[in-house]
Amino acid sequence: MSRKIRLRAFTLLESLVALLVISGSILVYQGLTQSISSNVHYLSANQEEKWLLFSQQLRSELAGCQLDKVADNKLYVSKGNQQLAYGLSKADDFRKTNASGQGYQPMLFGVTSSSISQDGNKVIIKLQLGSDMERCFVYTFETTS
Hints:
Elements: H1 12-45, H2 48-62, E1 66-71, E2 74-79, E3 82-88, E4 93-98, E5 105-109, E6 111-119, E7 122-129, E8 133-140
């Protein structure tokens, strides 16, 4: 007695369609991975976000301060009974210290050069970030009567 048993199997066409779907999915995944990788690289190399954070932080730090002087490329202010200084360190960061240079609070890294000037109650801070970005921060102190 010879009995034929038919087993259900994949046809060649079904196998090719499955391979086509798998290869298409892999290509889409690879494209998305490359796109995410390039976006992460751009954001990590972009200094604009760091500059915006720095300028907001410096603006809030200087609010309520009294301008003492600008000397030796540093900004000297008084806040309450504290004497503070802001300027470029010997390393590559712009930092906040006390007036004698002690203490260490970095505010912005990657600064290659800076210049701080004063025009009355207005202070202008020019910073060079890396080799391709230069920014200017202008702050006007309130006059005390």
